[in-house]
Amino acid sequence: MTTDPDLPGLHIGGVPREGGGTEHYEVRDPATGRVVSSRPEADVRDVDDAVRAAHTSFADWSRTTPAERSTLLFRWAAELDTVAAELADIETLQAGKPIRLSSGFDVPGSIDNVAFFAGAARNLEGKSSAEYSPDHTSSIRREPIGVIGSIAPWNYPLQMAVWKILPAVAAGNTVVLKPAEITPLTSLMLADAATRAGIPAGVVNVITGSGASTGASLVRHPDVRMVSFTGSTPVGTQIAAAAAGKRLHLELGGKAPFVVFDDADLDAAINGAVAAALINTGQDCTAATRAYVQRSRYDEFVAGVAALMDTVILGALGAPATDQGPLVSRRQQQHVAGFVERARADGARVVRGGAIPGGELAEGYYYEPTLIVDADQRSEIVQQEVFGPVLVVLPFDDDAEAIALANDTPYGLAASAWTRDVYRAQTAAREIAAGCVWINDHIPIISEMPHGGYKASGYGKDMSTYSFEEYTVVKHVMSDITGIARKDWHRTVFGR
Ligand code: NAD
Question: Annotated catalytic residue: which of 285, 385, 436, 470?
Answer without folding.
Answer: 285
